[in-house]
Amino acid sequence: MPSVPDLPTLLQAAVTAVGGVERPGQVQMAQAVERAVEREEHLLVQAGTGTGKSLAYLVPAIAHAMRTGKPAVVATATLALQAQIVDRDLPRIADALEPLVGRRPTFALVKGRSNYLCQHKLVGGFPEDDEETLLSVGSVDRERSRLGDEVVRLRAWADLTESGDRDELVPGVGNRAWRQVSVSAHECLGSRCPVVAECFVERSREAAKEVDVIVTNHSFMAIDAFEGRFMLPEHDLLVVDEAHELTDRITSTITDELTSGSVSVAARRAGKGEASARLGETVDLVADALADLPEGKLTALPERLVTTLQLVRDAARDTLSELKPDKGAEVDGGKQLALAAVDEVHDTAARVLEERELDVAWVTHDQRRGAVLRVAPMSVAMLVREKIFSERTVVLTSATLELGGTFDSVAGTIGLRGAGSPAWEGLDVGSPFDYPQQAIAYVARHLPPPARDGAAPVVFEEIEALVRAAGGRTLGLFSSRRAAEAAAEEMRRRLASDGIRVLCQGDDQMPTLVRDFASDARTCLFGTLSLWQGVDVPGPACQLVIVDRIPFPRPDDPLSSARTEAISRMGGNGFMAVSATHAALRLAQGAGRLVRRSDDRGVVAFLDSRMISARYAGFLQRSLPPFWPTTDRDLVLEALRRLDATAPEVVPVSAPGARGIGGAPLQGPAAAVPVARSPRTAVTGGHAWTDEQDEELRDGLDAGVAVEELAEHLELAPDLVTARINQLGLEVPV
Fold first, then answer.
1. In terms of residue numbers, what domain contains 698?
2. What positions does the domain Helicase ATP-binding occupy (predicted)?
3. Which of 293, 486, 505, 631 is deepest in the core (most CB within 10 A)?
């Protein structure tokens, strides 16, 4: 093993390489990571914006990997952070450390199988997708033409790419086209594949075994840990960044669903056989049994549903036996697709029937898919404790891990509290920012409590006064798409004569809206919860953040209500543990949009008087950055006017260039083409989007379906649907 200098020497070299300066919080965090590894003890570390936390964990992670010969794994929640780490931070750190450690530290990005081309599918090893399994809502001929063009381009690209990585295809293609050249993990033939030696996935994972740092995402890491697939090489250090998102991502990963359509597809793919025929006969039974059930959580399984699910489970089990290939038989891609579909139906039916203690089952009604039966764990705490914390040292970090002034809430959701919990340390390294001097937290105490039927006129008057005083420069964060649109429409009418422009989420692609907002001081951007973690606009373009109401979860959310009831039954405060904790995390993320640099100044305005009047107000306040608090409206308006008058010029934001193979910037005309977004980190407002949902979204918009109807069809809040539309760069029908 190479000789590795001490941590202070390595950190100083890395910080110099990225053009920064060492900060006390960054040094403290790096030392804590090193100490956690040495003690084999877990670490929760809250590092505020501007701390430089990625360097604070990457440098000790590299040092540990080089000393032990085992890779360190870094898991993030968002594609943006993955790109920052792989494309910006790690290359510069590696260059800086090479002279000190004797070789260049190495790293790799590991993704799920469906993100790569499948060589076997490219040469016809799998049947084409059945047209009946693809959502069709109109404009069929146009869709087929677009699909054909995209598949032709995909096949041409397949002859050129060295990695087979979907993210390197510029511009991207739709999920329907991508499915023609890729397979899921369950559909893959694995070691039995005749072209396994040429497999892009196997080659990338083999290469990852030899690197010092592996970067992946929460979902991939969870699948690797929970399903025992061993897709990641053996490691004894795991760093989870954006850790406040971890439980939502894991919950999404292990949520299952069953529909009459999924049973139909499984039976059709299985072909002709006695058992598959019996499976096909259950399709109408499933549709009828679910259609008769009201939407919402199933407190007990109705007898009819139990009987139907037993029939599905047993027929699927027998179908799997029929499909099992004979020993030594030639590998069949079509049979593997059938096995995957039938196995999923069997496992979901069996899981619901099992009625596990922590599972919650519920029914939603979908305009296109019919009734959907879903099942998810009420808590993943014990799973995380057993599968993630038991075999390695885990460092979890985020700007928002302390809620109500303590780590207890987050620690409880990931299994670090209670009997048998492993040893861990909680550390808040603070922020380099002087929050009380840089920002004001204003609560509009005089406003009435928020109503369900929309904002009162006095609320619009408050928004108008604040925005006018700020001269624009406003990021408005609203609890629903309808509220954001109503406020945007009203402010456009009221502020047009002042030359203040109001953009609203859904007007254009989100990156375009953010660039427009960041480039013009007289512009405001209004949006929903999905904006709260995705907007980073430092400088004078954003000097006012408005939060319309406390973002509690919906009262009819099955998982939230189940968690609340369970905690209350055990004598705890279910509201505080679930709803207030959820709201505190979202508020902290929203307020964190204001101060992004040491020279940022501004106001966070809460238009919900419960922030100071409710019994839980103190808990919410302790979860926020320590801004200077006030309820003095005149003082705030004067402060905003002064900031507007003295603000420096806004620096326009350039559009991002395209990235080619290996992440290198493209040159020439192709550089103007935006990079395709990857669905593997497609998460909005805590909801992880599937390929199927993305496809339904595309097809619905192409057919002119309204966003509200799509939201109802997908059983999601309209603001989440709008957020995903913006992520994918889709156009909303006028």
1. 678-733
2. 12-301
3. 505
